[in-house]
Specification:
Elements (H helix, E strand, L loop, with lengths): L4 E5 L5 H12 L6 E8 L2 E8 L14 E7 L14 E2 L5 E7 L4 H6 L11 H12 L6 H11 L4 E7 L5 E5 L5 E3 L6 E3 L11 E4 L4 E6 L2 E6 L5 E2 L4 E2 L15 H7 L1 H11 L1 H13 L3 E5 L1 H18 L4 E4 L15 E6 L5 H12 L3 E6 L5 H5 L2 E4 L12 H17 L3 H18 L2 H14 L4 E6 L3 H16 L2 E6 L16 E6 L5 H12 L4 E6 L8 E4 L8 H18 L18
Parallel strand pairs: 16-17, 16-18, 18-19, 19-20, 21-22, 21-23, 23-24, 24-25
Antiparallel strand pairs: 1-4, 1-10, 2-3, 2-4, 5-6, 6-7, 7-8, 8-12, 9-10, 9-11, 11-15, 12-13, 13-14
Helix pairs in contact: 3-4, 6-11, 6-12, 7-11, 8-11, 8-14, 11-12, 12-16, 13-16, 14-16
The chain binds 5-amino-5-deoxy-1-O-phosphono-D-mannitol.
The site of 5-amino-5-deoxy-1-O-phosphono-D-mannitol (M6R) has 17 residues, from helix 8 and helix 14.
Amino acid sequence: MGMCGIFATTNDQDAGKTILSGLKKLEYRGYDSWGIAVKGGGKLRSQKQTGRIAVSKTNLPKSKMGIGHTRWATHGGVTIGNAHPHFDCTGKLALIHNGIVDNYQDLEKKVKGHELAGETDSEIIAHLIEKELKTEKDLFLAVKKVVRLTEGYNAFVVMHQDFPYLVAAKTGSPLVIGVKPGENLLSSDVASLLGHTKQVIFLEDGQIAKIAPDVIRIESYTSAKEIKSVVQTINWTAKSASKSGFPHFMLKEIYDQPSVLTNIAESKVKEARELGKAIAKAKNIFMVACGTASYAALAGQYLFAGIAGKQVNSAIGSEFYYYDGFINTRSLCIALSQSGETIDTLQSVKFAKDRGAKAISLVNVKGSSLDRLSDETILLTAGPEKAVASTKAFLAKVAILLLAAHAMNRKTPHGVIEIKQATRAIRRILDFKYQKYLKKLAVKFKHSHSMFILGRGVSYPAALEAALKIKEVSYIHAEGFAAGELKHGVIALVNQNTPCLVFAPNDETYRDVISGAMEVKARGGLIIGISHKPNPMFDFYLPVPDSGNSTILPNVVVAQCLAYYLALARGLDPDMPRNLAKSVTVK
Ligand code: M6R
């Protein structure tokens, strides 16, 4: 069913209300449609709607137990029929699902004759459980049997009118149990549970749980033996997962960045040193990641080469498998991920571990699948990141890699100094007057058909990241290029007034990137220079103080802010871009 949000409670004063508020916190995971089912007066009642959650209360009766879902469609269009929860033919069983049931076409044949309301793979599972319940009288066991038949990376939660508990099963997509005696809960993420409890259990793949107000029983699919899981305490606050007065999470998270970097400079030196040591020891080293995290990895590749003189490769999660011949017991796989749930990144780590490689991850969410899968984890400690566009997690990853590169060169204190310089530079960018100018630029360029972003060296991944930010939140076509590549084809696209952002920091790339920018200007393009000093060829100038190797950090912040204001200028909600979901848990 895709990348969705799941929220459920077993004993609330008003389950519908609590679930609605939980779903609002999970909407970043999917926002095509939503739905809630509650058990009221012994019967199941539901409400479903397409689009984002636009209501402040449900029309459901007050009840104690319920399940809710926000959807990001994969199978079946955005319709009420395809929205979750799905019901069986009796209307007594409701199911919510995250993931894709790979063998749904085979399973569909087993429920011939059943009445299906939509076209989703999820609904088939509800009907399979209904069928199983004809012979198996225990809901927990019936779900267990059916889940065993499913293939793919999934999470299911089932509620039945006649059973006083919920059943949660995980084969891939995240599921977290909120441990609150008398009122246990379930969710797709930790942040949405913070207002209820900080005690959580992360379900593992292959586990199934029976959850009632005072019962949490976890088993594996293949055994009836109880598994005693560790209850973890989360140290995030509910406030850190709120907008804290900012109009959008994206802006709030951009403004979180100085304190994220300060924290890294103060507390991550030891772990960065350890990472440096592991890199020095390994033979083939691959950083694997997706999207923005993959650009952080590419930035790391330049930083390790430039600062530590070490070749550390970066690979996109979905492409990593093609390096099979190079991964063995002497290899090191460094996975980078904000969520720790990105399926391609997780699969890459499994792939590397299967070949005997060591896995270290840089991850923001403690207890996430990647955290649990890795041999060692360096937590980004950036606090919850909720906007779909990743901002502070990018900076945190690059800062840690930068520290590790300096550590390999025995110059960690210099890395700390550089991060502090970058932090000061970011504070200047976040200043009111600077932001006002960025807003003005955004208004000027809001109708642009496309934008180009140029950089060389470590500013090349910065250009890729800047382009991704602009694309995903403003829907303006933006492309990041290594400036030297322009004349090999891309320049054909430049015409009168095409805006071109140019990263021209105080390093060895300066002269060459300026000459690349000149080629654009000569063809009518408008140059927005992001640099430590003005240059006569800049049509617009965005100053960024030199912060040595860490100048990439403030440079990217300028682009994040510009992307944010472009979205606003175009009347868009930057927190929930169309077609996107925060956590990409399907392949
Ligand atoms: O949670 P992860 O860091 O593993 O996520 C990876 C990408 O899905 C993510 O960075 C995505 O590209 C963002 N939308 C970028 O802003």
